[in-house]
C-alpha cells in the first residue's frame, strides 16, 4: 500500500482534507492517463466477433450494417453541432470561486462550519432513506420520496399500486463489466480466492489430460467440455460424431496451449495431420475464440497462431466460409508490438489469400473499406496490401483503381490510397523493385487525389507518393514526373500537417532526381525552392513538421556551389532551432533525427566547421543536450573519419576534452559515450597520445566509485582505450601493466556485470602487451593471475564465464609454459561444466580454450579427461566434448588423438561409441585434405563397423564422418585411396531406404560428397539398376539421387549414360556424335 504524502504532518483538519482531496485527484488523473495511453492497442484487445454457429452474416447484411453505422455517425455529428450552436446562445454561468487556504476569516469559518453540518445531515437523511425496505431511487443526489415527487409533479399525477405479479430486480450491475473506458485490476484477496476455486473446479486427473502442466481461469470458459468432471470416457458413446470431434479438438488444443514440450509437439502434429478429418467448423470454432482472449501470454498466442497457419495449409480451400472470422481475429496482430507475431500474421493472411482467392478476400473485406472506425480501415488497408502482394498487382489493380475513384465516400478513397502506402512499406527496404513495373500505374491512380476536396485524402496521397519514392530508391523517377506539378501546387496551398505531407513527397522525389543525371537541372531548381520552405518551417512549433524537416534535410542534394552562403542560410538557423535543450529532451526519435540531419549537413558542407560549432554543447548544463552532442560527434566522425586528417590541434583538444567532460558529468549511463571514445581513437590514432593521461586518470578515479554502473562503464572504457595506449607507446608497456594491477586488485567485485567487464578489460590489456612484457610481469605475475581467475570460473553469470574462459585461453596461448601442468589440469576440470552451458558462445570459447591447453601441456592428459566425459548421459555435454576433442586433434594433429579414440570405441556402450563418432566427425571437419588422406586406411575398420551397426544414430553419425572425409579428399586421391571411398559408398547405399528424416538427410549428404570425390562415372553405375525397379519405394530414392546428379553434373554425366544402340526388333538408337571423345 502506498504511503500518503500527508502522513507525519500536524495540519488543521480542514486543510488536511483539502490536501487529501487534491492528492486523490492527482492520483486518479495519473491512473487515467496511464490506462488510456495506448488506446489503439486497447481497441485490438476489444475486438470481438460472433463465433456461435450459424451467425455468419451475408455480404448484403454486412453492407446494411455499415450503412447504418455511417448514418448513426452522421446524426451524432449533426446533433453535436446543434448542441454547440444552442450552447453558444446561453449566457455562461459564473465560474466557481477558487478556494483559499491561508486567509479564511473567523466569520467565513463559522459559515462554512454550518454548511458542513447541513451537508452531514443531508447525507445521513439520504443514507437512512436508502437503508429502508422500500428502495428509493436517487437522481442527482435527490431521493425521490412521495413528498418530493408531490412538489415536483403537477397535481394531476396520482400514485398507483404495484401489480401483484411484479417482481423487483434487486441485483446491482457490475460497474467494471459495464464500463469500457478502463480496467481495474482485481485485488490480491480476490485473485487468491479465484485461484483456490479454480483449483477445486479443474480436474487434476481428467481423462486424456495427461501432460497438461497448468490451468488458467479463462480455460473454464473455452474448455469446459473437457475439464468438467462429468465428462468421463464412458459417457462419450452418447455423443454425436460432431460432438466427439469438437471434444477431441478441445482436448488437443488445451494440450498445445498448456502442455509440456513433448505433449505440445505431439498434439500439434495430431491437429495438423487430422485437420481435414476434424473439419474446419470444429477447428475454427475452438481456435478463433481462444485467440481473442486478452489473457493469453506471448508464448500461448504464438503457439495458437502457428497452429492456425498449419491447419489452414492443410484445409486449403475449405477455409473459405471462415475467411471473415479468420481475418477478424488475425488482422489485429498486424499492429502488434511483437515483430515475430506480425510476421506470422502476415504469413497466415498470405496463405489464406492463396487458398480462397482474390474474389473471396474482396467480398469479405469490401464492407470495411469505408467503415466509420479509423482503426478498422487501417487494418483493412494492411490486409489488402498483403493480399495484393501475394496474389499479384496485375489482378488487384482494377479493384484498387475503382476504390480510389469512389465518389460515394471519402473514407473509401482514403483507405484505397492507404493500401498503396502499406504496399510500399511492405515492399520497402530493398524490395521495391517488385513494384517498379507497376509504379507508373500506381502513381496514376493516386494523382487525382492530390486535388481531392477532402483534406485527409490529399494528405495521405502525398504521404503515399513519398513512401513509393522511398521504396523504389534510386530508380523510377520518370514515373513521378507527372505528379510534380500537383505536388508543387499543394505545397503552395497547404499549411500544417498537409504541408508536411507534400514536403515529404517532393523531398523523396528530389532524392530520386539526384541519382539520374538527366534530371540534374530539375533537381537543383527544386532543391533551391524547397529549401526556402524548409527554412521557414525551421521555427515551427509543430512536432510533425519538425520531424518532416529533419527527414527531408539529409535527402536533399545540398552543396556549397548550390548554396554559397550556407553558413548564414542553413547552418545558423539549423543550430538555432534544433540544437536546444527543449528539443534534446523531447523524445529519443526526434534526437536521432537531429543527429542524422547534422551528419547530412556535415558531409555536404564543412564537417570540421560543424564539429567546432556543436562541440560547445558537450559542456552544457543540460544532460540531454550533452548526450545529443556526443551522439552527433560520434556519428560525424564515424561517417567521415578521413576528414579528421585536417583537424588542427585546438579543435582536436576541444573534441577530446568535450567528450571527456560529458563522460564525467553523466548521471544516466549510456553506451553513446563509449562509442564516441572508440570513434575518436580509431580516427585520431597516434594523435591521441597527449590525451591518454587525462583519460586514464578519469578512468582510474571512476573504477573506485561507489556506484556499480560507474565502475562498469569505466572498465568498459579501458577495453576501448587499451589498443590506443599500445599504439601511442609502442615500446613501453608500463602504463598497461599499471592498468593490469588496478584491474587485478578489483577482481573481488561482487556485482557480476561489473566483474565481467573487469575481466574483459584485463584480457584486452594483456592481449595488447608484448609477449615478453607479459611473461616478465611481477605485480601481478601470470602465476599469480591465473590461480586468482580459476575460482571465478564457477560464477554462474554468463558474461563472467565467457570473459574468464577467453582470458584463460589467451594465457594458454601466449604464456602457457610459465604455468605448472597440474594447474592447467585443474583449470581443465573446472571448465568441463562450461561445455554444457546454455549459451553457444560460452561453449565455443570453452572448446577453443581446451585446444590451447592441449597445445601447452600435450593432449594426453586432456584427452583422458574428455574421453571420460563421453560416458555421461546428457547429450549436449557429450556433443560439446566431441567438439573439444576435434579441436584438440586440430591443434595437436590427429595422430595424437586417433589411437585413443579408436581404442575407446571398443567399449560396448552406445553413448561412448556415438561420442567417438561425433569426435571423428568434428576432427575431419577441422583438418585439411592432405592430412585427411593419410588416415583413410587407419580409420576404415571403425567406419565400416559404424555403417553396418543396427543403431540408426550410429549409421547417421558415421555418414557425417564419411561426408567430411570425402569433401576433404576431393582432387587428392589416387586409385588405392579411391577404392576406400567406393567401399564407403557400398556400405552407405543400402541406407537410402531409411524413413527417418534425420537419418536420410545425412545419408544423402554423404552420397553427394562421395559422388564429388570418386567422380560421376563410377557413381552413375550405382544408379541405373534402381531407376526402373518395379517397386515405387525403390525407384523413388534412386531418382532423387539422379536428379541431384543432373543438377550438379549434367554435362559430365552425358558420356556415362547407358548405351541403347539397337533393341531387339526395334529402332536403332545409336548416335555416332556421342562417341567422339577429346
Description:
This protein is mainly α and 1078 residues long. Among the domains are: 11-45; 118-157, no CATH class; 202-311, no CATH class; 561-640, no CATH class; 669-814, Leucine-rich Repeat Variant; 821-911, Leucine-rich Repeat Variant (Alpha Horseshoe). A hairpin with a 2-residue loop joins strand 1 and strand 2.
Oligomeric composition of the shown chains: single chain
Question: What sort of overall outline do the alpha carbons produce when their principal axes are compared?
Answer: globular
Give the low-confidence spans.
1-9, 25-37, 48-54, 88-92, 172-183
Report the CATH superfamily of one domain. Leucine-rich Repeat Variant
Can you describe this structure in just a few lines?
The protein is mainly α and 1078 residues long.
Secondary structure blueprint with pairings:
Elements: H1 13-35, H2 39-45, H3 59-89, H4 106-131, E1 138-139, E2 142-143, H5 146-152, H6 175-178, H7 188-201, H8 219-222, H9 224-227, H10 241-258, H11 261-273, H12 275-278, H13 280-291, H14 298-315, H15 323-330, H16 339-356, H17 358-365, H18 374-391, H19 393-404, H20 410-426, H21 439-446, H22 455-472, H23 484-493, H24 497-514, H25 520-537, H26 543-552, H27 566-578, H28 581-584, H29 588-604, H30 607-614, H31 623-639, H32 649-665, H33 672-684, H34 692-703, H35 708-728, H36 734-745, H37 752-768, H38 771-775, H39 782-789, H40 798-815, H41 821-831, H42 840-857, H43 859-869, H44 875-892, H45 898-904, H46 910-926, H47 929-933, H48 936-947, H49 952-968, H50 975-988, H51 997-1014, H52 1016-1020, H53 1024-1027, H54 1032-1053
Antiparallel strand pairs: 1-2
Amino acid at each position: 500500500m502506498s504511503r500518503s504524502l500527508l502522513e507525519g504532518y500536524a495540519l488543521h483538519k480542514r486543510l488536511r482534507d483539502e490536501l487529501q482531496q487534491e492528492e486523490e485527484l492527482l492520483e486518479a488523473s495519473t491512473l487515467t492517463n496511464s490506462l488510456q495511453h495506448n488506446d489503439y492497442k486497447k481497441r485490438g484487445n476489444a475486438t470481438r466477433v460472433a463465433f456461435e454457429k450459424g451467425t455468419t452474416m451475408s455480404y448484403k447484411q454486412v453492407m446494411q450494417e455499415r450503412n447504418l453505422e455511417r448514418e448513426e455517425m452522421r446524426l451524432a455529428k449533426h446533433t453535436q453541432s446543434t448542441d454547440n450552436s444552442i450552447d453558444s446562445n446561453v449566457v455562461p454561468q459564473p465560474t466557481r470561486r477558487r478556494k483559499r487556504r491561508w486567509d479564511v476569516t473567523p466569520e467565513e469559518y463559522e459559515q462554512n462550519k454550518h454548511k458542513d453540518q447541513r451537508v452531514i445531515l443531508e447525507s445521513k437523511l439520504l443514507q437512512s432513506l436508502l437503508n429502508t425496505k422500500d428502495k428509493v431511487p436517487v437522481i442527482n443526489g435527490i431521493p425521490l420520496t412521495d413528498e418530493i415527487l408531490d412538489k415536483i409533479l403537477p397535481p394531476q399525477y396520482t400514485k398507483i399500486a404495484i401489480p401483484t405479479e411484479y417482481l423487483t430486480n434487486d441485483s446491482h450491475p457490475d460497474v467494471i463489466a459495464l464500463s469500457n473506458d478502463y480496467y481495474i485490476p482485481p485485488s490480491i484477496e480476490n485473485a487468491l480466492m479465484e485461484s483456490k476455486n479454480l483449483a477445486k473446479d479443474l480436474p487434476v486427473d481428467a481423462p486424456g489430460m495427461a501432460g497438461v502442466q497448468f490451468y488458467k481461469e479463462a480455460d473454464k470458459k473455452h474448455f469446459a467440455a473437457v475439464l468438467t468432471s462429468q465428462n468421463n470416457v464412458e459417457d462419450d458413446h452418447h455423443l454425436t460424431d460432431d460432438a466427439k470431434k469438437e471434444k477431441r479438438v478441445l482436448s488437443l488444443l488445451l494440450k498445445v496451449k498448456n502442455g509440456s514440450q513433448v505433449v505440445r509437439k505431439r498434439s500439434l502434429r495430431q491437429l495438423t495431420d487430422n485437420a481435414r478429418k476434424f473439419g474446419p467448423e470444429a477447428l475454427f470454432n475452438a481456435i478463433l475464440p481462444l485467440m481473442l482472449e486478452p489473457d493469453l501470454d506471448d508464448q500461448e498466442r504464438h503457439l495458437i497462431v502457428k497452429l492456425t497457419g498449419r491447419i489452414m495449409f492443410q484445409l486449403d480451400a475449405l477455409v473459405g466460409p471462415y475467411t471473415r472470422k479468420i481475418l477478424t481475429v488475425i488482422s489485429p496482430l498486424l499492429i502488434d508490438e511483437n515483430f515475430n507475431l506480425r510476421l506470422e500474421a502476415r504469413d497466415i493472411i498470405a496463405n489464406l489469400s492463396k487458398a480462397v482467392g482474390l474474389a473471396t478476400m474482396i467480398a469479405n473485406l469490401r464492407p470495411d473499406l469505408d467503415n466509420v472506425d479509423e482503426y478498422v480501415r487501417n487494418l483493412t488497408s494492411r490486409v489488402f496490401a498483403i493480399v495484393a502482394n501475394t496474389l499479384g498487382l496485375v489482378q488487384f489493380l482494377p479493384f484498387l483503381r475503382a476504390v480510389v475513384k469512389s465518389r460515394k465516400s471519402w473514407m473509401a478513397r482514403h483507405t484505397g490510397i492507404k493500401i498503396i502506402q502499406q504496399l510500399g512499406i511492405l515492399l520497402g527496404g530493398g524490395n521495391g523493385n517488385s513494384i517498379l513495373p507497376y509504379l507508373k500505374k500506381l502513381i496514376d491512380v493516386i494523382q487525382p487525389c492530390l486535388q481531392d476536396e477532402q483534406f485527409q485524402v490529399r494528405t495521405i496521397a502525398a504521404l503515399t507518393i513519398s513512401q513509393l519514392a522511398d521504396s523504389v530508391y534510386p530508380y523510377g523517377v520518370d514515373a513521378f514526373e507527372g505528379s510534380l506539378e500537383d505536388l508543387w501546387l499543394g505545397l503552395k496551398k497547404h499549411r500544417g500537417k498537409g504541408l508536411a505531407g507534400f514536403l515529404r513527397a517532393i523531398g523523396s522525389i528530389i532524392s530520386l532526381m539526384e541519382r539520374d543525371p538527366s534530371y540534374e537541372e530539375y533537381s537543383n531548381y527544386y532543391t533551391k525552392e524547397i529549401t526556402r520552405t524548409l527554412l521557414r518551417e525551421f521555427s515551427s512549433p509543430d512536432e510533425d513538421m519538425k520531424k518532416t524537416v529533419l527527414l527531408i534535410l539529409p535527402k536533399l542534394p545540398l552543396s556549397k556551389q548550390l548554396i554559397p552562403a550556407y553558413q548564414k542560410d542553413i547552418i545558423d538557423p539549423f543550430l538555432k532551432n534544433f540544437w536546444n535543450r527543449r528539443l534534446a529532451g523531447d523524445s529519443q526519435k526526434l534526437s536521432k533525427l537531429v543527429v542524422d540531419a547534422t551528419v547530412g549537413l556535415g558531409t555536404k558542407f564543412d564537417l570540421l566547421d560543424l564539429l567546432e560549432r556543436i562541440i560547445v554543447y558537450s559542456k552544457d548544463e543540460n544532460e540531454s543536450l550533452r548526450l545529443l552532442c556526443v551522439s552527433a560527434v560520434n556519428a560525424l566522425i564515424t561517417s567521415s573519419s578521413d576528414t579528421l586528417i585536417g583537424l588542427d590541434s585546438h579543435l582536436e583538444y576541444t573534441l577530446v576534452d568535450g567528450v571527456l567532460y560529458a563522460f564525467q558529468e553523466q548521471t544516466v549511463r549510456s553506451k553513446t559515450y563509449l562509442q564516441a571514445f572508440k570513434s575518436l581513437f580509431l580516427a585520431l590514432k597516434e594523435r591521441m597520445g597527449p590525451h591518454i593521461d587525462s583519460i586514464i586518470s578519469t578512468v582510474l578515479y571512476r573504477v573506485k566509485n561507489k556506484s556499480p554502473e560507474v565502475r562498469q562503464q569505466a572498465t568498459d572504457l579501458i577495453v576501448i582505450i587499451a589498443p590506443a595506449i599500445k599504439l601511442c607507446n609502442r615500446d613501453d608497456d608500463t602504463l598497461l601493466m599499471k592498468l593490469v594491477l588496478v584491474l587485478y586488485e578489483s577482481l573481488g567485485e561482487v556485482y557480476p556485470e561489473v566483474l565481467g567487464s573487469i575481466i574483459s578489460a584485463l584480457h584486452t590489456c594483456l592481449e595488447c602487451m608484448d609477449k615478453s612484457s607479459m611473461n616478465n610481469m611481477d605485480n601481478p605475475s601470470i602465476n599469480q593471475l591465473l590461480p586468482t581467475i580459476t575460482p571465478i570460473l564457477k560464477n554462474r553469470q554468463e558474461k563472467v564465464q565467457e570473459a574468464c574462459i577467453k582470458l584463460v585461453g589467451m594465457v594458454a596461448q601466449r604464456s602457457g609454459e610459465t604455468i605448472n601442468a597440474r594447474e592447467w589440469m585443474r583449470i581443465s576440470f573446472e571448465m568441463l561444466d562450461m561445455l554444457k552451458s546454455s549459451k553457444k558462445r560460452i561453449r565455443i570459447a570453452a572448446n577453443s580454450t581446451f585446444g590451447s591447453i592441449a597445445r601447452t601441456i600435450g593432449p594426453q592428459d586432456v584427452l583422458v579427461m574428455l574421453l571420460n566425459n563421453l560416458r555421461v548421459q546428457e547429450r549436449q555435454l557429450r556433443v560439446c566434448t566431441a567438439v573439444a576433442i576435434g579441436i584438440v586433434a586440430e591443434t595437436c594433429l590427429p595422430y595424437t588423438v586417433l589411437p585413443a579414440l579408436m581404442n575407446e570405441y571398443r567399449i560396448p556402450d552406445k553413448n561412448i561409441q556415438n561420442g567417438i563418432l561425433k569426435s571423428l566427425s568434428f576432427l575431419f571437419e577441422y583438418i585439411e585434405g592432405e592430412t585427411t588422406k593419410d588416415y583413410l586406411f587407419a580409420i576404415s575398420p571403425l567406419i565400416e563397423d559404424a555403417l553396418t551397426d543396427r543403431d540408426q544414430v550410429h549409421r547417421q553419425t558415421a555418414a557425417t564422418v564419411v561426408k567430411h572425409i570425402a569433401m576433404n579428399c576431393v582432387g587428392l586421391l589416387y586409385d588405392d585411396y579411391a577404392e576406400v571411398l567406393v567401399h564407403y559408398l557400398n556400405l552407405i547405399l543400402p541406407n537410402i531406404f531409411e524413413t527417418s528424416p534425420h537419418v536420410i538427410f545425412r545419408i544423402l549428404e554423404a552420397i553427394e560428397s562421395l559422388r564429388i570425390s570418386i567422380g560421376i562415372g563410377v557413381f552413375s553405375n550405382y544408379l541405373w539398376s534402381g531407376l526402373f525397379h518395379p517397386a515405387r519405394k525403390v525407384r523413388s530414392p534412386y531418382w532423387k539421387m539422379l536428379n541431384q546428379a543432373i543438377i550438379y553434373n549434367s554435362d559430365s554425366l552425358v558420356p556415362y549414360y547407358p548405351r541403347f544402340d539397337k533393341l531387339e526388333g526395334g529402332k536403332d538408337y545409336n548416335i555416332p556424335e556421342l562417341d567422339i571423345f577429346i
